[in-house]
Design brief:
heterotrimer; A alpha/beta (170); B alpha/beta (424); C alpha/beta (305); B: 424 residues; alpha/beta; nine-stranded mixed sheet; C: 305 residues; Rossmann fold; 2 domains; five-stranded parallel sheet; four-stranded parallel sheet; 11 helices
């Protein structure tokens, strides 16, 4: 995917969200650290253009990971919700859906922050190889890959460009 | 028994260092010279080594009687032989302390029983080491004691010190002082300075040692007696000794290898393997003590070998007892810290301590007729101090590399150490 | 970083990293459910050989907020203490199942010794007069959150510096993070030398007062150090006490801090202690967050950079 593809995918997802939820009432878009956050902001902008303004939150799942023992620790990032999420419809946003463990951690974190009426998942890329029963409601692009391949998403806000790259593990 | 021929070494003779062989017949040296005949002799290769009088340690704690879990005469003798020593002067702060003749005889007899080194008991200056009244000095003298010390404590009362010195000067003995002013030392655990300030630990200023030495030297001048400063650790003490010698006082001094090799920055890690009295001092003091040993102001090396069991030292720094072992690492530590030529090496580690303790059999430069009590030192031998024959392993060199080690030791013609192995 | 024993072991980047993590944990503690599952299944043992309630409770609170289990050892309440050596005690606690040990002990270097005996991470909760790293971390976090930065701030640490582990840890942490630190004490309460410490020294609180941003008051300690080192309490108060009058002379925005527990009327006046602007209680809540950050770091992996 290149920059134009990314932008198109976000716009399409925004329309799907509006259609699926019959509007944007009670919606909250929550980006999962790290790259889910700028994607969530862009998605909220697209939603505002399409229908109306939607609040944005950010979620850091470092404290909910199940693999702390086996990886070098990341910094503890910021978690900030725009007000209460009780009884709202939360659309979680992430760049890549892979094993599903990140989403599981995000669901646990959300449960500690409140009780949403409903949680939906929007991802830019679904690369398969689920290890948990998790599925995305909105997908930018399905990208079948080998498990050992690396999929990296680059975003202007963090990496200076928009792109989705597949490569062999270095 | 065949003669023993020590070949190819650098031999310490009255004429200076001589490259050559030494032939031992029975308990004496038969001949010294280059290229001696080999027939009928057991040839022992000493190439690359220094061959000299057996080393003597004037300051050793063997903990027997009373504290044998730390060390005893047998394990300590093994450590001494392994370190290259043929005689050790044993400190009297045992339990009971050596303040009576029969106790001194006990220690000497134990040494003879083990038979690896000559164990020379020192005696207390005061009864029970209490600092109150004199011990039975005449009894101790009759039992063979020539060096008197309350080591572990100072003789604090100058009047008592004076009387001891006057009494002993008739006989020819020497008072050796562990210089520690209790008021200044207080409850200190390490040198008072940058490191103690950083650690938040009470320290011991250099003056705790120096005020005692200064006072003692005044009493020495008053009495004209012999006086020996144990474990010199500060530049100030060095200057006091230098001045006293310049005035013609009969003063000798010793330094311990750990005060030559380590400074107080080692204590930052609060490892009790670096805790002893006097404490490790700043680099300036270490340099001054090393220079003084090199130029002879400090006459000799004394290890202050002070064994403590592992469970006693495996505690936080301030809870640990003071003292480190040193017999087995002395040669390597001294050679690594101070530049000494072979003649100076034997002067500091054999001749001077033998003279201090009045030992006629030891400290004799090698010549025809002198005792076959000899240390063969390999000054280039690289080794790691990872095993000890001492019962305790509380050594600051543990696990560290050293250069210099005794290869063979003979006591009256018999090997006590051969190829670095202790022999019975 | 395997253990947390000594502030002097940490670089500026490492200190700032811990404070950054702690900000995240402040947010967690503000949630309706102030708990995360990060250390679920881990057991954190507090071994406090010196009496302490506040620090021990703070660590326990921090461990529980991370969903860890806690085990508490205090001599006098346990038969383990009867004549048993420190080494045997901590090895026994480890054998019972410990993933991390926090130790407070009256002997300098006790925590470092323990870290050499155990195979789990060790946190120094205070060793004699030497170090109290988590106190320094919570104090610097508190100041950073109040002022937005530490670089360039003027910090005065006042009181019995000589016998204070808080003074040693805090002066190192604040100066590593770029603050100007001044130690204020009479000569008898200063370390024998501060020659190579990155601090200034003054015997006059009044001289230092108008310029400082933070006045950090140390407890007058009667349980450590034994012999009396100043003539009387009233004399101490008049020279070094943070009285109401002195509080009024601080510049605008300056804050008063204290590690607790306070001797009201001695190092700090009653009114000053109850001042809404005093950061004392703030320090306590920051303490839980910072200890969460430390536990998370040590049990979750290496600190990078």
């Amino acid at each position: 995917m290149d920059g134009a593809d990314v932008r198109r995918a976000i716009r399409r997802i925004a329309h799907e969200i509006v259609e699926h939820n019959r509007g944007t009432a009670d919606l909250v878009v929550v980006g999962i650290h790290t790259r889910g956050v700028p994607l969530a902001v862009r998605l909220a902008e697209a939603l505002a253009e399409a229908e109306g303004p939607v609040p944005v939150g950010e979620l850091d799942i470092t404290l909910y990971r199940d693999d702390l023992d086996r990886r070098p620790t990341h910094r503890v990032g910021t978690t900030r919700m725009p007000g209460s999420i009780n009884d709202r419809v939360v659309v979680l946003v992430d760049d890549v859906l892979f094993t599903g463990r990140t989403v599981r951690a995000a669901l646990d974190a959300l449960a500690d922050l409140g009780r949403p009426r409903r949680v939906q998942l929007a991802v830019l890329v679904d690369r398969g190889h689920r290890e948990l029963p998790v599925r995305a409601d909105y997908v930018g692009k399905n990208l079948p890959t080998a498990a050992r391949e690396r999929v990296s998403v680059k975003l202007v806000e963090i990496d200076g460009e928009d792109a989705v790259l597949i490569g062999d593990p270095s | 028994m065949a003669d023993i021929l020590l070949t190819g070494g650098l031999v310490a003779t009255p004429q200076g260092m001589v490259s050559g062989d030494v032939r031992l017949a029975g308990e004496v040296v038969a001949e010294v010279g280059p290229g001696l005949a080999r027939e009928g002799a057991e040839v022992v290769d000493c190439a690359g080594c220094w061959v000299g009088p057996g080393l003597v340690d004037p300051h050793v704690h063997l903990r027997e009687p009373g504290q044998e879990w730390k060390e005893d005469v047998e394990s300590g003798s093994q450590a001494a032989a392994a370190g290259g020593f043929t005689a050790v002067v044993v400190m009297p702060n045992t339990d009971p302390p050596i303040d009576a003749g029969h106790l001194a005889r006990f220690v000497a007899d134990r040494g003879r029983q083990v038979g690896l080194v000559d164990v020379i008991p020192a005696g207390c200056v005061t009864a029970g080491r209490s600092g109150q009244r004199l011990a039975h000095l005449d009894e101790l003298w009759a039992a063979g004691v020539r060096l008197f010390t309350d080591d572990g404590d100072s003789v604090a009362d100058a009047g008592l010190l004076r009387r001891a010195m006057e009494y002993l000067s008739d006989l020819g003995g020497v008072v050796a002082q562990h210089a520690e002013d209790r008021g200044l030392a207080g409850s200190g655990h390490l040198h008072e300075g940058e490191i103690s300030a950083l650690l938040g630990l009470v320290g011991i200023p250099a003056e705790a040692e120096e005020v005692v030495v200064a006072r003692d030297l005044a009493v020495t001048r008053l009495t004209g007696a012999r006086y020996h400063v144990q474990h010199v650790s500060t530049a100030g003490t060095v200057e006091l000794v230098r001045a006293a010698k310049a005035q013609g006082l009969a003063v000798t001094a010793e330094a311990a290898p750990h005060h030559l090799a380590f400074d107080h920055r080692e204590v930052l890690a609060t490892d009790p393997a670096f805790k002893m009295y006097p404490p490790l001092r700043p680099p300036e003091d270490v340099a001054a003590v090393g220079a003084a040993l090199a130029d002879g102001t400090i006459d000799m090396v004394g290890t202050d070998h002070a064994p403590h069991a592992a469970h006693e030292k495996d505690v936080p720094f301030e809870d640990a007892p003071r003292g480190v072992i040193g017999l087995e690492t002395a040669v390597g530590a001294v050679l690594g810290a101070v530049s000494l030529d072979p003649a100076a090496f034997f002067a500091r580690l054999a001749l001077a301590p033998a003279r201090l303790a009045g030992l006629e059999h030891h400290g004799r430069l090698i010549a025809e007729g002198t005792p076959a009590t000899i240390s063969v030192i390999d000054p280039g031998r690289e080794w790691v101090a990872d095993r000890f024959r001492s019962r305790s392993a509380n050594s600051p060199w543990r696990g560290r590399a050293l250069t210099g080690r005794a290869r063979h030791v003979l006591l009256r013609g018999r090997f006590t150490l051969r190829d670095e192995e202790v022999r019975w | 970083m395997r253990h947390l024993l000594d502030i002097a072991d940490l670089s500026r980047a490492q200190l700032e990293g811990i404070l950054d993590d702690a900000d995240g944990f402040v947010e967690v503690l503000g949630r309706p459910i102030p708990k995360v599952p990060a250390l679920r299944g881990k057991t954190v043992t507090t071994a406090f050989f010196e009496p302490s309630t506040r620090t021990r409770l703070s660590f326990e609170r921090a461990a529980k907020a991370l969903s860890a289990d806690t085990m508490t050892f205090a001599p006098g309440t346990s038969s383990l203490s009867k004549g048993e050596s420190l080494k045997d005690t901590v090895l026994t606690l480890q054998a019972m199942g410990t993933d991390l040990m926090i130790i407070r002990h009256q002997a300098v270097g006790a925590a470092r010794r323990v870290s050499e005996w155990l195979s789990v991470p060790v946190v120094n909760g205070g060793d004699g007069a030497h170090q109290h790293p988590t106190q320094a971390l919570l104090d610097t976090l508190t100041v950073r959150r109040r002022f937005g930065h530490i670089e360039g701030l003027r910090v005065a640490i006042v009181g019995d510096i000589r016998h204070s582990r808080v003074a040693r840890s805090d002066s190192q942490a604040f100066s590593t993070l770029g603050a100007h630190v001044t130690l204020v004490a009479p000569r008898t309460l200063l370390p024998v030398t501060t020659r190579d410490w990155p601090v200034e020294v003054s015997a006059s609180l009044d001289k230092v007062l108008p310029d400082v941003d933070v006045v950090y008051l140390l407890r007058v300690q009667t349980e450590r150090g034994g012999a009396s080192v100043f003539p009387s309490l009233p004399e101490y108060v008049s020279r070094f006490g943070m009285t109401r009058e002195r509080r009024a002379r601080l510049k605008a925005g300056a804050v008063v801090m204290h590690p607790g527990p306070m001797n009201r009327g001695v190092e700090i006046a009653d009114e000053v202690a109850d001042d809404p602007d005093a950061l004392v209680l703030e320090q306590v809540s920051m303490g839980v967050a910072v200890r969460m950050a430390v536990l998370f770091r040590l049990l979750g992996g290496e600190i990078d950079g």
